[in-house]
């Protein structure tokens, strides 16, 4: 079991070496002529207006929150799904109860207007 | 010192250092990113303990959802990303003393514990963690009721979040 | 164990024998051989990635009724190498006030999140990186790292457009993860395991016949997860220039771009593994891994073709429509499908194959038909409401010119 994760670690390491190597190769091979105009922030060719910080809508946060709850729910469902092939109707009904409680939550969120972007 | 012990020490060191960086760094987004490093190191610790499911769940839920939620929250609320105040406040001496005393107390307590030199018991052969988890969560003698209660808990969290966000709107 | 049936084990054993003959301890030799194997796989993937650039450009050209690159080499095959040379010799600029560490780390993490996915892809019955028994969630975990790299890229560029593009893209990515995980649960239920190899071995009949709606939901959610049109909020070219990619040029942009193409091929592969039997094709894979690998790659390329087809045919969807589509249609549909599949599976599982397969298929079809009926009625009601409002307005205008 441990050797499995060691191999995964190898994949992480090699997966990191390849882009690092490519980017370092590009940094070595490319010309180096930094120039303040080249390094200004891009705003469709005009000078930037204001800070590069924007007031964000609270909708992003709400979507992330709803996502979090459903993510945890689906993670709980994985052990249930794995065992389902060998269990009977009781386990299926139990899972259906679990999912429907959270579908009720989704409908509640929907009706409260939390899922609008506007 | 077996290889496993060395790897564990390195990962534990990474966890501690990145946790320290979370609370001391001045830029908030950097703090969130150091938190991601800490959570990832904890996932590696789970993998070292053969808890593959927990390791993957740690990455999916903590890094994929909670760390992103932190970053969104930081972006939403602060205009100034850098913490302008001083790093230490007036009573840092007392808190340092308390921290050292707590650490010393824990150290003294754990001296008498013989778990440090034991190796982890090997799991019975053919042990499939996912199967065992699945049985535990669905059999009436085990954890069926907490499983359902967990969904109610999630529903409560969702309703609470909706209520909070609704008021703010 | 001859060459045709088990080439990888033969090569690994030969190398380990060579290394221990030189005096290396057995554990280190094993580790080194594994490392070299991983290096080989990832190098081959990068070479395939280069040709994916060519494939993409040729295909988009044909969809747009033109020829595509045809100057460099036969059929323009040398074109991607020219692209790479160009990307390599471009200057490595960093915008002023950008956060240097995070800015440089983002493209590396983005590419890494794609390469680590190939650890669990089974290329042949005995050739796969790691047979993790939590393969399905590993896919989602790699996606989480990719999502993080997008936020890092957008934030560290110190550019309003990059930030907005990154946040929108992450909102979409994060939302579409739910139907994708729900669709991943369906092969898990049908196969009784989360490991990729186990799912393939359990597919005596392809899961697309048992759950066509699940395959469709996975495809749609995967296209959204890839950040490709019609869900490409992150690089909405006409809206945000290049979204989170704005301040990246040269090889760093190349990493993002090539990573996205390889990601698309990988998800084409996963669609094939989860729903179309992976490397299995009527028993051909038992003959030799040299047959199994092309079978899997063919299915991956067919999946990639379908993803490209969708990209070059449909327009980008507006973000509020995209999120409404996910939370109000796809997520409830995915959960209801999950419940129906679990129920149908447990009720029909004991019966013979002649009842099981059509039963599962029909349950999906009935669910799809009910959903389409709902949508039809809903859109008819919406249209009448809109027409009623328009008519009322016209009447008012006639009355009060």
Describe the model.
The complex is a heterotrimer of chains A (118), B (169) and C (401). Chain A is mostly helical. Chain A has one domain (2-111): NADH:ubiquinone/plastoquinone oxidoreductase, chain 3 (Methane Monooxygenase Hydroxylase, Chain G, domain 1, Up-down Bundle), CATH 1.20.58.1610. In chain A, 65% of the residues lie in helices and 0% in strands. Chain A has helices at 2-29, 58-83, 89-111. The model of chain A has no long low-confidence stretch (mean pLDDT 81). By secondary structure, chain B is an all-alpha fold. Chain B folds into two domains: 1-82, Four Helix Bundle (Hemerythrin (Met), subunit A) (Up-down Bundle), CATH 1.20.120.1200; 129-169. Chain B has helices spanning 3-24, 28-48, 52-77, 92-111, 129-138, 144-168. The longest helix of chain B is centred in the middle third of the chain and has 26 residues, at 52-77. Chain B is extended and about 55 Å long. The mean pLDDT of chain B is 84. With 401 residues, chain C is an all-alpha fold. Chain C is built from 14 helices and two strands. Chain C has a two-stranded antiparallel sheet with strand order 1-2. In chain C, helix 4 packs antiparallel against helix 5 (135-156) and helix 6 (160-191) packs antiparallel against helix 9 (212-226). The longest helix of chain C is centred in the C-terminal third of the chain and has 47 residues, at 353-399. Chains A and C meet through helix 1, helix 2 and helix 3 of A and helix 2, helix 4, helix 6, helix 11 and helix 13 of C.
Mean pLDDT of chain C equals: 84
- Strand count, sense and closure of the main sheet of chain B? none
* Straight-line distance between termini of chain C: 90 Å
Structural class of chain B: mainly alpha
What percentage of the residues of chain C does DSSP assign to strands (E)? Answer: under 5%
Q: What is the chain-wise order of helices and strands of chain B?
A: HHHHHH
- Could you name the CATH topology of the largest domain in chain B? Four Helix Bundle (Hemerythrin (Met), subunit A)
- Considering DSSP H and I runs of 4 or more, what fraction of the residues of chain B is helical? over 70%
What's the CATH architecture of the largest domain in chain B?
Up-down Bundle
Unreliable sequence segments of chain C:
none
Task: Find the structural class of chain C using helix and strand composition.
Answer: mainly alpha
Instruction: Write down the CATH class of the largest domain in chain B.
Output: Mainly Alpha
Total helices of chain B: the number is 6
Provide the helix percentage of chain C: over 70%
Mean pLDDT of chain B: 84
**Biggest interface and which pair forms it?**
A-C, 75 and 85 residues
Approximate shape of chain B: extended
Multimeric organization: heterotrimer
Cα distance, first to last residue of chain B? 58 Å
Number of strands of chain B: 0
Strand order of the largest sheet of chain C: 1-2
């Amino acid at each position: 079991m441990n050797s499995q994760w060691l191999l995964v670690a190898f994949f992480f390491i090699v997966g990191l070496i390849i882009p690092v190597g490519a980017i370092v190769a590009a940094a070595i091979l490319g010309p180096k002529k930094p120039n303040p105009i080249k390094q200004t922030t891009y705003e469709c060719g005009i000078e930037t207006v204001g800070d590069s910080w924007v007031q964000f809508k609270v909708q992003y946060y709400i979507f992330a929150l709803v996502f979090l709850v459903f993510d945890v729910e689906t993670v709980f469902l994985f052990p249930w799904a794995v065992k389902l092939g060998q269990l009977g109707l009781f386990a299926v009904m139990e899972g259906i109860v679990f999912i429907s409680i959270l579908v009720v939550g989704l409908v509640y969120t929907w009706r409260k207007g939390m899922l609008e972007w506007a | 010192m077996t290889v496993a012990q060395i790897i564990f020490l390195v990962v534990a060191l990474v966890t501690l250092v990145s946790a320290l960086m979370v609370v001391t760094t001045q830029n908030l987004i950097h703090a969130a990113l150091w938190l991601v490093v800490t959570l990832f190191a904890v996932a590696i610790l789970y993998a070292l303990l053969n808890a593959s499911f927990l390791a993957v769940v740690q990455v999916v839920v903590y890094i994929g959802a909670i760390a992103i939620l932190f970053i969104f929250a930081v972006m939403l609320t602060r205009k100034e990303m850098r913490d302008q105040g001083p790093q230490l406040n007036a009573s840092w001496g007392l808190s340092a003393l308390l921290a050292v005393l707590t650490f010393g107390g824990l150290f003294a307590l754990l001296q008498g514990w013989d778990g440090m030199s034991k190796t982890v018991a090997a799991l019975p052969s053919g042990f499939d963690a996912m199967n065992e988890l699945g049985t535990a969560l669905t059999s009436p003698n085990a954890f069926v009721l907490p499983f359902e209660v967990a969904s109610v808990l999630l529903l409560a969290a969702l309703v609470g979040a909706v209520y909070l966000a609704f008021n703010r709107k | 164990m001859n060459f045709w049936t088990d080439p990888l084990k033969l090569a690994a054993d030969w190398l380990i024998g060579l290394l221990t003959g030189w005096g290396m301890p057995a554990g280190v030799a094993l580790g080194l051989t594994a490392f070299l194997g991983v290096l080989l796989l990832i190098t081959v993937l990068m070479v395939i990635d280069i040709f994916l650039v060519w494939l993409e450009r040729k295909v988009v050209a044909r969809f747009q009724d033109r020829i595509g690159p045809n100057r460099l080499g036969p059929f323009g095959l040398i074109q991607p190498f020219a692209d790479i040379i160009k990307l390599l010799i471009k200057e490595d600029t960093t915008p002023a006030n950008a956060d240097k560490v995070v800015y440089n780390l983002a493209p590396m993490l983005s590419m890494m999140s794609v390469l680590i996915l190939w650890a669990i892809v089974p290329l042949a019955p005995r050739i796969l990186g790691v047979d993790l028994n939590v393969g399905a969630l590993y896919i989602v975990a790699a996606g989480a790292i990719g999502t993080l790299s997008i936020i890092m890229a957008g934030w560290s560029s110190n550019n309003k457009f990059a930030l907005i593009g990154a946040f929108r893209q992450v909102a979409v990515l994060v939302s579409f993860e739910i139907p994708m995980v729900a669709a991943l649960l369906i092969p898990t239920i049908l196969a009784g395991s989360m490991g990729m190899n186990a799912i393939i071995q359990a597919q005596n009949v392809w899961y697309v016949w048992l759950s066509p709606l699940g395959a469709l939901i996975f495809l749609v959610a995967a296209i959204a997860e890839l950040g490709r049109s019609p869900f490409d909020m992150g690089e909405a070219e006409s809206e945000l220039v290049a979204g989170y990619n704005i301040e990246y040029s040269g090889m760093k942009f190349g990493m993002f771009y090539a990573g996205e193409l390889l990601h698309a091929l990988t998800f084409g592969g996963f669609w094939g593994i989860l729903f179309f039997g992976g490397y299995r094709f009527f028993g051909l894979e038992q003959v030799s891994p040299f047959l199994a690998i092309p079978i899997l790659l063919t299915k991956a390329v067919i999946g990639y073709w379908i993803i490209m087809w969708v990209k070059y045919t449909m327009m980008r969807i507006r973000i509020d429509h995209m999120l409404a589509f996910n939370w109000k249609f796809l997520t409830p549909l995915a959960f209801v499908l999950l419940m129906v599949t679990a129920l149908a599976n447990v009720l029909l599982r004991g019966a013979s194959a002649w009842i099981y397969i059509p039963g599962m298929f029909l349950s999906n079809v009935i669910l799809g038909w009910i959903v389409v009926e709902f949508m039809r009625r809903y859109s008819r009601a919406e249209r009448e409401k809109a027409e009623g409002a328009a008519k009322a307005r016209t009447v008012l205008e006639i009355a009060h010119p």
